[in-house]
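Exercise: predict the fold of this chain.
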Amino acid sequence: MFSKILIANRGEIAVRVIRACKEMGIATVAIYSQEDVSSIHTAFADESICVGGRQASDSYLNQRNIISAALVTGAEAIHPGYGFLSENPQFADLCQRYGVTFIGPTSEVISMLGDKDAARTLMAAAGVPCVPGSSLVESVEEARAEAGRIGFPLLIKARAGGGGKGIRLVERDEEVEQAYMTAKAEAKANFEDDGVYLEKYLTHVKHIEIQIMADEFGNVISLGERDCSIQRNRQKILEETPSLAVDEDLRTRMGDAAILAARTAGYTGIGTVEFLVDGDRNFYFMEMNTRLQVEHPITEMVTDIDVVKWQIRIAAGVPLAMKQEDIAFNGCSIECRINALASGPIKFLHLPGGHRVRFDTALYQGYVFPPYYDALMGKLIVHAHTREEAVRKMKAALCEIVIDVPNNIEEQIAILEDPAFLDGTYDTRFVDRFDRE
């Protein structure tokens, strides 16, 4: 096992990883930008080191400085968290070249699965159901031809990156040219790769993802599904497990497909295979995320498995201690992402408590929430025996939170009270309707 790990991230996920390391007896190194000198993750870690200026490009994306920080502090491994460098194959390769373990899959696997077009081709060849689409399109004329073959509506999607960047919805032929040019430009700006492909846009579908764990000895298991359909601009807002749209048969079939996807890619570590599920319980591969997901806590709640600890163990060469038949799912868990609507000082803060109520955050009273990074202030997670009880518990916990910086708590309560959420019939267009009302 590692004796010291550097956490190449900030905020709530850095705190989450540091806690796991402390419980495992592993020393920790926090990195921080000049803006984050007073961030709580720097105080929680055993050591902390500044890696650059307040902009992410100068600090949390500064690969050379982060590697130097690992070497100078004697860290044996780097945990990338999510976002920033977590799915960057060049960074994973740099870690390997300098003898530091990257806690995640190999750079080759990250690169292969990060190319959405190549990943779809690989999965289709292996027999994993995929959304109908095209390979890379190189011109507006080719995009129009492929659009005519696939049919509208469709998506023009960047082959690289994620987070909803480089994706445009096209509903008619006259929109193809503008959407194609815009998607390519956004992909180039965000990922330095303007490759795009076309994919059929499926309506009235659920976004369901499967959490998998794979060790270096060929063992791969599924930890069940998460329903991530409530999202705005492809950014998730609320997640739950289990999904009301998934019965035992579908859960088994999707789990088997996710395991097949991981085996096909030669995957090691923890990862998430994302699917779209239609009303007839047909499912289609979208992509595989090669990192820890923001919403991993709800899986931990229903399986009683610490996903972060197992991510670290797998990277250290420890075989999985459980088989698929050992995985049991208990109760229901919901996560609400608490996002800031503005930056500024937090003069008053009260966090919720109670049985099986968890708030993953790096906030503290007196902290100044910065404008330079993402808007996530924390993740509220609850667990209960039934979904009805979990919804009530979440609403009660949301009503307890007091953060005197503008946030989305009222919106989360309204979502929980919406009839489509309560009966589980919501789909990926839920927020579009919700925002209009």
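Check your answer against the key: The chain is about 35% helix and 25% strand.
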